[in-house]
Amino acid sequence: MKLSTPLLLSALASGASAQGGPYSQCGGTGWTGATTCQSGWTCIYSNPYYSQCLPSTSSSSTSSKASSSSQSGSSSSSTSSSTSSTKTSSASSTATPSSTPTVGPSRLTGKLPALGWNGWNAYGCAISADKVLAAANSFVSLGLQDAGYQYVNIDDCWAEQARDSTTNSIVPDPTKFPNGISGLAAQVHALGLKIGIYGDAGTATCSGFPGSLGYENVDAASFASWGIDYLKYDNCNVPSNWTDSGNPPGGDWYNSNSAIRYRQMTAALVAQSQPIQYNLCIWGNANVWQWGARVGHSWRMSGDSSATWSYITSIINTNVQYLDAVNFFAHNDMDMMEIGNGALTLAEQRTHFAAWAFLKSPILLGTDLSQLNSTQISIITNSELLAFHQDPNIGTPANPFTSSTSSGTTTPPEFYAGASSKGIHVFVINTAGSTATKTMKFVDVPGLNATSSQSFKVHDMWSSSDLGTFTTSYGVSVGAHDTVAVLVTPV
Ligand SMILES: *[C@@H]1O[C@H](CO)[C@@H](O)[C@H](O)[C@H]1NC(C)=O
Ligand SMILES: *[C@@H]1O[C@H](CO)[C@@H](O)[C@H](O)[C@H]1NC(C)=O
Ligand SMILES: *[C@@H]1O[C@H](CO)[C@@H](O)[C@H](O)[C@H]1NC(C)=O
Q1: Which residue's CA is the closest to the ligand 1 atom numbered 7?
Q2: Which residues are marked as active site?
Q3: Percent composition of the chain: helix, strand, coil (DSSP 3-state, to 5)
Q4: Cβ contacts of residue 14 below 8 Å, gap of 6+?
Q5: How far, in Å, is the centroid of ligand 2 from the Cα of 383?
Q6: Are both 155 and 218 inside the same structural domain?
Q7: Distance 460 CA to ligand 3 centre (A)
Q8: In the prediction, which pLDDT does 33 show?
């Protein structure tokens, strides 16, 4: 019987394909798909590259989607009533919701890629309230908060092994978090910052603490009551009947078992009274870039990061294949930062930060912030790269382009261009292990519309300085694994 729900949904979805579904694209430069939206949704212009089907009534998605999911009949009523019923009813072990929610994520959070910190890369399971609070205080003292960093996020290992036997709630570990998560959240909020937590779409987290599959409503209610602003939702310990083997019903990965596990948490989160940003830590599985924006605000494109040049280049190379998925409320997550960890050179740390910024990945620092030196602080607080990343008017990332000056293809690509509120930016990664001269011909740069002998002003984003006026092309010597970042403006 369970199989009938995804089959029914996919049949309905394909019948309605002439009109855009919830949160789907419905216009923009080069767009050839549907330009109208299904009933209850309106095609809203975001920018020249993107229009999107949004709820017809308001900016908040919470109220309108119960009605928009009416095609699945009984499921919408169980979704809207499930918060209270789960809390009172289920001491039973597998309280899996019987419906498949179609509700989308909140539009009150997650428009721009998150900027913050997560404790995992620095501390792993050895997390505590003291370490989280130290990171929050460093946001203030090191100028990170002024630069726009907001989220201080707890990863795995914050809970006790067993749920509360009466309420079914996850219980914070009282040794690590003596004031609970709510006490810590209050301290973080008092600094003007936001706090994130970690959960898992399986029976246990990756480190073996309680998973939220079947407990989405009770856990989302706990997170909300503690004051949580952000959820990273991992993908460990998934029962075999909840995994995907082969293609999902109708070939639509939105109806895969993986997506449905994440959709159940979407519905639970949007039923709360405050917006919670939702990161799908799904490791690039189930073609998540195709449906991630209908379910959450950002989604992991890979397994865990490591503090190596090979990780940085391989995740850039993966991500550049799926940049069409990136826009406001929709971010490919290249995983937490490794600046400050391992043996990355300063050039590699600059490339790491620049690429996460120009591809609009969440940037969550992953180190003991008190150990960063002044050069590293200046990298992660670079105001012009952060302004590109956080641009309120343009949601699309920079994209690779073919440069007629390069001698061959590289992995990852070396030349990228993208628009911001200030104009057209070019980013060039030297993927080689030695210094090389990189030349951009202005005619090659998408968006500049240059003629062959036109002059442009070139401005260095790293140093916030004007480099001069150049005709036809601009060339610069770039150190091994370093990245050039410039703004190019017509004279
Ligand atoms: C997997 O099995 C559990 C326990 O029988 C059940 O509650 C759940 O609905 C099943 N999941 C799917 C996707 O069929
Ligand atoms: C900061 O650390 C990097 C290594 O990560 C080093 O190359 C650089 O010289 C240091 N800068 C300062 C100012 O100490
Ligand atoms: C380049 O041309 C496109 C399409 O014709 C236009 O939208 C864009 O504004 C132009 N860019 C500049 C920098 O003039």
Answers
A1: 96
A2: 234, 304
A3: 30, 20, 45
A4: 250, 252
A5: 20
A6: yes
A7: 22
A8: 80
| 403 in the same domain as 430 | yes
> Is it the case that residue 420 has pLDDT exceeding 50?
yes
pLDDT band at 2 (very low <50, low <70, confident <90, very high): very low
The answer to the question of residue 68 being in a domain is yes
Q: Look up the domain containing 213 and give its range.
A: 86-389
pTM (global) more than 0.90: no
Nearest to 489 by CA among 473, 472, 475, 469: 469
Asked if residue 394 belongs to a domain, the reply is no
- Whether 27 is in a domain gets the answer yes
The answer to whether residue 419 sits within a structural domain is yes
CA of 214 to the centre of ligand 1 (A): 9
Instruction: State whether 478 and 371 are in the same domain.
Output: no
Segment 68-89 mean pLDDT: 31
Pocket of ligand 1 (CB under 6 A): 2, 94, 96, 239, 241-242, 257
Q: Where are the alpha helices (DSSP H) in 338-419?
A: 346-358, 374-380, 383-389
**CATH number where 133 lies:** 3.20.20.70
**Residue 249 and residue 168 share a domain:** yes
